[in-house]
């Protein structure tokens, strides 16, 4: 008889639908390989589901009504207030599981579903962004209204809400954190600390860094990757990547200015992600490739491997998978010391970090990295750190230990 806890994983999507959902999917695969029974329920999957995955919302009219309910409450400013997915699906399958582990609730799952599930089962909630302790924004940036009571939200247009009910959403989030039956997990110390300034946890919030899953990447040596992509060995190659390169939070404007500052080195710049419409105008005299959004891990592995540095000037981030990808490929990171990035990149050993929004320091660090004779050594150290500090086996074991501890 299997003594390992059986786990229902619940997230907005599957791996193709975003980083947090990818972590949920990979955790499910690890649990299955470790001998646990696990099913991953996806609210809005992208592409085909794997054998251990299932739709969170029921099919037919019931599923359409559930999704419409969430859209309607969000439109009026209350984030997924009605727990339609609990009554539609989860309540009928909870008997199969010991633990229900939720990921990325934002725009998909009601916080009340966690409370209802916790009446019957152990509940874990991994927060992958800031929406669990704000009035709804994923990253508040310079706004600190969430520390007291949200309102007059500067991000309201982006949230797509007709009414500013961010203060109500914040009160719901604070109520949820006080529930003794819900265990919070954060991937970075930074995110836990930031959440702790807004929430009062009844259970000690845990930090479990995301493990890095190597499957599918096929990282190469720089020489082999460059031959594959047709890049000369002596060329300086800068990689800039984000899902949406026009997102101001990703700091691409800082990256473009830093690239102009090293124009004399004649770098080749590779952009991965959905580009801003005016990118070519903003890159005068710079040779660049626009790869677009790349989902194929093998191609991503070649691009990361072929690059000398990964220029990542994000202004706020949790524990970015892209940084892990670059480090796993042996490509040092140049960026700002924000969010969970300093928990991944060690300045002057596995990359170069500087104060947030310090353009002059970013320019200097990019030049130093591209001209450093020890750049390959930085890459080797980065690869070692990913293997030692972000092992997917450690990630899985820590979750199993948490599940089992909750059952005592």
- Strand proportion, as a percent range, falls in 15-25%
Q: Which regions are unreliable across 5 or more consecutive residues at pLDDT < 50?
A: none
The assigned structural class equals alpha/beta
As laid out across the biggest beta sheet, the strand order is 3-2-1-4-5-6-7
C-alpha Rg (nearest Å)? 22 Å
**Helix percentage:** 25-40%
- With helices defined by DSSP (H or I, 4 residues minimum), what is the helix count? 14
Q: Main sheet?
A: 7 strands, parallel
Note the overall shape: globular
- The helix/strand order is EHEEHHEHEHHEHEHEHEEHEHEEHHH
Give the strand tally: 13
- Overall residue-averaged pLDDT value: 95
Q: What is the terminal separation in angstroms? A: 19 Å
Write structural notes for this entry.
This protein has 408 residues and is an alpha/beta fold. It contains 14 helices and 13 strands. 37% of the residues lie in helices and 15% in strands. The strands form two sheets. A seven-stranded parallel sheet has the order 3-2-1-4-5-6-7, with helices on both faces. A six-stranded parallel sheet has the order 10-9-8-11-12-13, sandwiched between helices. The longest helix is centred in the N-terminal third of the chain and has 16 residues, at 60-75.
């Amino acid at each position: 008889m299997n003594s390992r806890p059986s786990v229902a994983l619940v997230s907005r999507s599957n791996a193709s639908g975003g980083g947090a959902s990818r972590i949920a999917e990979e955790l499910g695969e690890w649990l299955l390989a470790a001998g646990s029974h696990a099913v991953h329920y996806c609210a809005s999957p992208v592409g085909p589901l794997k054998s251990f995955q299932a739709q969170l919302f029921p099919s037919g009219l019931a599923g359409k009504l559930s999704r419409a309910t969430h859209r309607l409450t969000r439109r009026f400013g209350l984030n997924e207030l009605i727990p339609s997915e609990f009554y539609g699906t989860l309540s009928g399958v909870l008997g199969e599981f010991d633990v229900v582990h939720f990921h990325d609730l934002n725009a998909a799952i009601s916080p009340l579903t966690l409370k209802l599930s916790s009446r019957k089962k152990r509940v874990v909630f991994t927060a992958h962004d800031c929406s669990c302790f704000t009035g709804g924004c994923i990253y508040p940036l310079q706004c600190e209204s969430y520390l007291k009571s949200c309102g007059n939200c500067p991000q309201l247009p982006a949230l797509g809400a007709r009414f500013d009910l961010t203060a109500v959403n914040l009160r719901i989030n604070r109520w949820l954190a006080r529930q003794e039956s819900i265990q919070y997990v954060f991937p970075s110390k930074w995110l836990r600390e930031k959440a702790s300034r807004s929430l009062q946890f009844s259970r000690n919030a845990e930090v479990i860094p995301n493990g890095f899953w190597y499957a599918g990447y096929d990282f190469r040596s720089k020489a082999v990757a460059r031959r594959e992509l047709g890049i000369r060995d002596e060329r300086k190659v800068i990689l800039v990547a984000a899902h949406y390169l026009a997102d101001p939070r990703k700091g691409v404007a800082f990256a473009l200015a830093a690239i102009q500052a090293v124009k004399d080195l004649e770098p080749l710049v590779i952009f991965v992600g959905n580009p801003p419409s005016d990118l070519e105008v903003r890159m005068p005299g710079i040779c660049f490739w626009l790869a677009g959004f790349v989902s194929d891990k093998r191609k991503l592995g070649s691009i990361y491997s072929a690059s000398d540095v990964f220029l990542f000037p994000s202004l706020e981030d949790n524990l970015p998978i892209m940084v892990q990808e670059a480090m796993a490929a042996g490509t040092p990171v140049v960026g700002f010391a924000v969010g969970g990035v300093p928990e991944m990149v060690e300045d002057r050993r596995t990359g170069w970090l500087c104060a947030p929004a310090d353009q002059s320091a970013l320019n200097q660090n990019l030049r130093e990295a591209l001209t450093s004779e020890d750049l390959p050594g930085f890459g080797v150290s980065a690869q070692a750190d990913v293997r030692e500090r972000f092992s997917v086996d450690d990630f899985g074991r820590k979750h199993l230990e948490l599940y089992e501890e909750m059952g005592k």
